[in-house]
């Protein structure tokens, strides 16, 4: 019986010590860094051919899609400021047109005369991130094409991220 009592006393003394150690243990600090990166991406792609033929019509619309994971800015310019008429030997002048660009999801609808496109014009999404959406480019002749020959202009549209102000 004496050994039984010693055993019980020993357990009683050990149990409080174990409890004491478990309550007095200092919690360690844990620092966890979470990181990620997404590359900036802004793309414009035409949903049809990239040629607008105005031979027998005054106006034509060309749909496009745009993807941008930041607010966007588009710069638009014209090589000739209108359709340059020529017969291969001689230039007859420039026929002006109106260019309208619209992206409904971004509330963009801007009309620019070709003569104003000789210097760069820009359109931006006012801080809105479009992600994936569609738009339209519409070209409308101001006057009918009169002279026999070729008419040509090149419209350059660049799309790139604009980090001016981001709206959620």
Structural key phrases:
single chain; 168 residues; mainly beta; 3-stranded antiparallel sheet; 1 helix; 11 strands; 14% helix; elongated; disordered N terminus
How is this fold's topology laid out?
Blueprint: H1 2-24, E1 42-46, E2 59-68, E3 72-78, E4 83-86, E5 91-95, E6 97-103, E7 108-113, E8 121-124, E9 131-141, E10 150-152, E11 155-161
Antiparallel strand pairs: 1-2, 2-9, 3-8, 3-11, 4-5, 4-10, 6-7, 6-9
- Could you tell me how far the N terminus lies from the C terminus, measured between alpha carbons in angstroms? 79 Å
Strand content: 35-45%
Classify the helix fraction into a percent range: 10-25%
User: Structural class of the helix and strand makeup?
Assistant: mainly beta
Counted beta strands: 11
The H/E string reads HEEEEEEEEEEE
The number of helical elements comes to: 1
- Give average pLDDT, whole number: 83
Within the largest sheet, what's the order of strands? Answer: 1-2-9-6-7
| Rg from alpha-carbon coordinates | 35 Å
The low-pLDDT segments are 1-24
Shape: elongated
Instruction: Characterize the biggest β-sheet.
Output: 5 strands, antiparallel
